[in-house]
Amino acid sequence: MNRNRKTSLLMSFILIITSACSALAAPAIATSTAAPTATGAPTATPVSLYQQVTLTSVPSEEDGQSPDSKITAQTPKLTGSADPRVQGFNKEASDLVQSVIADYKKNLAQMPATPITASSTFDVKYKSLSSPGNIVSIKFDTEGYVAGMAHPFHMSYTLNYDLAKGKDIALSDIFLPNTDYLGALSKYCDAQLNTRNIDFQDFSQGADPTPTNYKNWNITPDGLMITFDEYQVAAYVAGPQTVTVPYNELKSLINPDGPLANFTH
Q1: Quick one: DSSP state of residue 160?
Q2: Same domain? 179 vs 224
Q3: Which CATH number is 247's domain given?
Q4: Which of 14, 172, 217, 219 gets the highest tally of CB atoms within 10 A of its CB?
Q5: Number of domains making up the chain
Q6: φ, ψ for residue 10, nearest 5 deg
Q7: Helical ranges in 47-203 per DSSP H
Q8: In what helix (H) or strand (E) does residue 244 lie, and over which residues does it extend?
Q9: Interval 220-250: pLDDT, tens
């Protein structure tokens, strides 16, 4: 074999080896055959009923004659939803206001027909005491005057409503069955009222553990607020009294599955 042919074969051999090494050294490029993953649409979070409604006030005014009288009222009303639970609250609130007005008219009708210069008056106001949520707790304050009386009178009424369940909340619903919750409320209120300059000892029976004494209560962020009307635990001059019982004082009695479940954590 001549020299040129040997050289040609050697060059061909080197070229083949070089190509093979380059192929081994080159990184492989992966080709994806999988379909791209679709991004799922976010799931809408249901809006709670209490977030759909707004508490508004419906004013009313009524003038009467023989005897002269004027009745004014503010009635709470939830707007923003036609849900039956919302309508249930609105009916409860309206019925309560109309009931106390009817009681006043009944007392007014029993007054003598002899004209009296002064006019009789009755006014109903309310406050919402609960935090935003399913529980709606309303305190109604009334001030009435019947011509001829020495001074006006004041009375309170309360409405506690579970919007999620669409029903009133009874005081017993808050506590575990067969617990002496009235005794616990009475003990705390008695101790608090004794610290006030209201001659409580002369009216202490007004804080005894009976359902009547604790009929006016509200669910507030700070605790269970008890309202005692004038003359109940103090003389008229001292006015109505309120005591807020912290939830920690009642923790062992509160039903963990009841309306106050969120306040026990």
Answers
A1: E
A2: yes
A3: 3.90.640.20
A4: 219
A5: 2
A6: -65, -40
A7: 84-109, 171-174, 181-193
A8: strand 241-245
A9: 999 999 999 999 999 999 999 999 999 999 9
pLDDT on residue 39: 54
Strands, sheet with 167-168, edge to edge from the N-terminal-most edge strand = 54-64, 69-79, 120-128, 135-145, 153-162, 167-168
Q: Which of 149, 147, 129, 131 is nearest to 139 (CA)?
A: 129
The parent domain of residue 247 ranges over: 170-265
Q: Tell me the pLDDT of the chain averaged across its residues.
A: 86
Q: Is residue 182 part of a domain?
A: yes
Sign of CA dihedral 128, 129, 130, 135: negative
Give the residue from 143, 169, 195 where a domain finishes.
169
User: Is there a domain that residue 16 lies in?
Assistant: no
Does 43 map to a domain?
no
Domain membership of residue 27 (yes or no) is no
The reply to whether 87 and 71 lie within a common domain is yes
Q: Whole-model pTM?
A: 0.81
Rounded to whole angstroms, what are the CA distances from 161 to 168, 177, 182, 213, 220?
4, 20, 20, 20, 13
State whether residue 50 is helix, strand or coil: helix
Q: Which whole-number Å values give the CA distances from 99 to 96, 103, 245, in the listed order?
A: 5, 6, 29
